[in-house]
Amino acid sequence: MTGSRGSHRRTVPRQRADGKVTDAAGYDTVPQVQAAGPLVVGVDGSRSATEAVRWAAAEARLRGLTVSLVAVPRWPARRHEPAPGTLLDGSAPVYLAAAAAVAGEVAPGIVVTRTVAHGRVAGVLREAGWEASMLVLGSHRRGPVTGTLLGSVGMTVMAGARCPVVVVAEPDPWTAPAAPGDPVVVGVGAGAAAAARFAFDEAQRRGAPVHAVHATRAVHPGTRAAVDRLLEECRRLHPTVEVVARVLRESPAAALTRLSATAQLVVVGARPGARPPGGSVHRAVVRHGRCPVVVVAQQRREQCCDPTGR
Question: Global pTM?
Answer without folding.
Answer: 0.79
